[in-house]
């Protein structure tokens, strides 16, 4: 599948798109480049023009290009969930001062769905949690152990009854709570770009 990739790094977004999509994007204000190796260091060192926050790579095969990009990073897979209860509320938390959704790294040979359930349960203390289906995958780059990691996070729609929640403080989580979807702006005003993608896929924000 020649899918479109959207990878976040700090305030920069990197898009990998099929060459056939170029005409649709060329007047969008994005900056075009095709050579991953020739521009990656500049991206990571914040040397791109500050006025240009979106970049894209055109590729005959976007999956192959993404695989080539992965080789420059420590690749990490994680999973998490957008959890709803019977009162049209979603499970949210605060980690290191930012609004967040529960997620975490996959353990060796652990199925992705099992990771998602385990991490949500561990981080929020929630019980009777079930998966209702796959939602989306997000990608982001961040400094990691003297290098850079590229993380893919698998997100699932989940359901749980309303209950008392318990933050996993050893993971720097200071608060977990149920948030009415009518108050979603309180969440989006102080969160990560990747999570805005998750909320958009869930049709909670435009």
Outline the structure in words:
The protein has 206 residues and is of the alpha/beta class. The protein has two domains: 5-70, no CATH class; 76-201, Nucleoside Triphosphate Pyrophosphohydrolase, CATH 3.90.79.10. The protein contains six helices and eleven strands. The strands form two sheets. An eight-stranded mixed sheet has the order 3-4-2-1-9-10-5-8, sandwiched between helices. Strand 1 and strand 2 form a beta hairpin. The longest helix is centred in the middle third of the chain and has 13 residues, at 112-124. It is globular and about 50 Å long. The protein starts with a strand and ends in a 5-residue tail after the last helix. The mean pLDDT is 90.
């Amino acid at each position: 599948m020649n899918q479109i990739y959207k990878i976040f790094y700090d305030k920069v977004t990197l898009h990998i798109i099929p060459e056939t999509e170029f005409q649709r994007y060329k007047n969008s204000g994005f900056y075009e480049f095709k050579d991953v190796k020739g521009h990656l260091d500049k991206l990571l060192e914040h040397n791109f023009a500050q006025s240009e926050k979106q970049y894209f790579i055109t590729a005959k095969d976007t999956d192959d290009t993404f695989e080539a990009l992965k080789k420059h990073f420590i690749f990490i897979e994680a999973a998490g969930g957008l959890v709803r209860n019977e009162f049209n509320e979603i499970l949210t938390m605060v980690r290191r001062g930012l609004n967040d959704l529960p997620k975490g790294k996959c353990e060796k040979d652990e199925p992705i769905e099992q990771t998602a359930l385990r991490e949500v349960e561990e981080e929020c203390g929630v019980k009777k949690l079930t998966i209702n289906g796959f939602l989306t995958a997000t990608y982001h780059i961040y400094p990691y152990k003297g290098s850079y990691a590229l993380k893919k996070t698998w997100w699932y729609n989940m359901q749980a009854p309303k209950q008392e929640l318990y933050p996993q403080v050893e993971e720097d989580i200071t608060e977990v709570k149920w948030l009415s979807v009518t108050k979603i702006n309180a969440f989006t005003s102080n969160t990560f770009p990747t999570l805005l993608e998750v909320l958009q896929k869930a049709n909670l924000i435009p």
